[in-house]
Fold each of these.
Amino acid sequence: MSRSLLLASFNEGVHRSMAGNHEAALQSFDQVLAVDPRHFPALTAKAFALKQLGRNAEALKGFQRAIELDPSAADPHREAALCQLELGEPEAASLLME
């Protein structure tokens, strides 16, 4: 997949997610991640879409992967903590917010 097609797939996923079609957005983000598994924006967007679908355990894994790639990024930490709260893990959530 060319760089322009990768960007187009990512943008399509963002538009789908913003329209509330999170399942379709996941397909777009998966296309990007199949080519570039370290694509930070696609990782975080996919995790957010999973969270919106109530799939918090899967979303948490995505946010944790994003944190591994960029430990200084605040959004994945916050979203991972929110997932952990939804999963009944307040102690783990508080560690992420330190």
Amino acid sequence: MAHSFAEARGRRLPVDEVTRLAWQASRLDADAFGDLYRLYSSDVLRYVCARVSGRHEAEDLTNTIFEKAFAAMNRYQPSPAQFSTWLYTIAHNLVIDH
């Protein structure tokens, strides 16, 4: 990988790097999915916290979002949606259903 996640902390990776990680994760590469989790988990948690009543509830929902994403990774297609769009769609749907 061209960028380390320590190096990327505090800034976004280029879209093509995220797409590469998502493609690898869609081939059930757990390490690539772990990198995506580290990249997006804080942002997804903030998104969920703004929409539910408590931090603990938001953390539980965030974990469920990533569990659902991992379970569906073999169906992820990088086109037409970027990984973040796909992930936030899962988050939105789970929050609505909650």
Amino acid sequence: MRRRNVLSKHSTKSERRVYEVLKKLKLPFRHRWLVQGREIDFIVGKLAIEIDGHEQDEEKNNLLVSLGYTPVHLHNSEVTEEHLTKLIQTYKWLLQK
């Protein structure tokens, strides 16, 4: 895995919102991380968060699962501080890995 350098101007509004919430929650995370050549929006522990305004990539999901990640897809409309906080609380056990 490696980090891909991406300027914030290339991030979507929803991605910037997730970034700010994760920072506020003081969680260690990686943004736009490459996993075997596939870009993942956010990696938080073993949680792989994808912000989707499009159809899900089943092949990418299968790759993530095979590597021990739990993929979570959020539609742009679901990216609110309240929803993200609940999501993090629900998957808290994955954040320790």
